[in-house]
Amino acid sequence: MPIDDHPFDALERQFEMEDLTLSPVTKRILKFASLMPLPWPFDKLVESLTGHLAAGSVERMYLMLKTCMDEVRKHDTRGLRDAEPPEAAQAREEISKELLLDAARKAESTRAKARVKRIGLILANAIVEPKPTDADEVEEMMRVAMELSDRDIVFLGELTRIEGSLLQTQDHIPRYEAHTRWELGFWGNLVFPEADSVFSKLESYGLVARIPPPNNLNIMADFQNRYVLLPKGARFVTLIREVGGL
User: Does residue 224 surpass a pLDDT of 70?
Assistant: First the structure.
């Protein structure tokens, strides 16, 4: 059977074995889910999904899985699989299994659908990369995705737009360049209270860092704090991008 033809039968059987009463909504979702095929390396893994799931959490988990599978299908996973030695392919499958379980748990406890979808995108993009999957990094990125709002993503994406290219050739952005490029964002050089709120949150997750103000700044001046993109922030934006855009 081709790798893209494996249905959700294992997932449906697992839910049927659970000791819980499924609502009609849940049953309809699982019936629909059983018709959706899984690409490699997830084709053998859904049978491992367990947990006491209510109808709402099933919907969120299904959304995460569908987002992940749709994104994986945009990539040449057959080429990736064939190019890897058997040992490396097996290691990727094992890591994929662990991450899929973790992603399912995170999706179950995440309310916003946009955040759930970003969890799926992170899982998909990390798994299809040619390099070995860093499970700890992916787990952390999915955890961050649970916490960031759409507005947070807009600000992070804008900072990546104006500063991200600098991280393609170096491991950090010099203070002067970061300070100068800050004004190229949609916030300009005005005092923007919302920026402080959002970027302080992003900083708490290690995605950005506040730039120390200039030494010649007048203490009486009303000055907007400026931030620099960190490699972790650039990496996060890469992992939540769909093929063709953010």
Answer: yes
- Residue 211 is inside which H or E element, if any? strand 208-211
H or E element that contains 43: none
Quick: pLDDT tens for 173-196: 999 999 999 999 999 988 888 999
Average pLDDT, the chain: 80
Q: What is the DSSP letter of 3?
A: G
Q: Report CA 191 to chain centroid distance, whole Å.
A: 31
Which comes out higher in pLDDT, residue 18 or 84? 84
Taking alpha carbons only, the member of 144, 177, 141 closest to residue 162 is 177
Q: Rounded CA gap, 50 and 18, in Å?
A: 8
Q: Is the Cβ–Cβ distance between 68 and 120 less than 8 Å?
A: yes
Q: What mean pLDDT is predicted for residues 63-91?
A: 82
Element (H, E) at 228: strand 226-229
Q: Which domains, ranges and CATH numbers included, belong to the chain?
A: 3-147 (no CATH), 151-238 (1.10.10)
- Can you tell me the distance from the alpha carbon of 109 to that of 137, in angstroms, rounded to the nearest whole number? 20
Place of tokens 């650039």: 234
Report CA-CA distances (Å) from 108 to 24, 49, 122, 165: 19, 12, 16, 35
Q: Nearest Cα to 154, choosing from 35, 237, 95?
A: 237
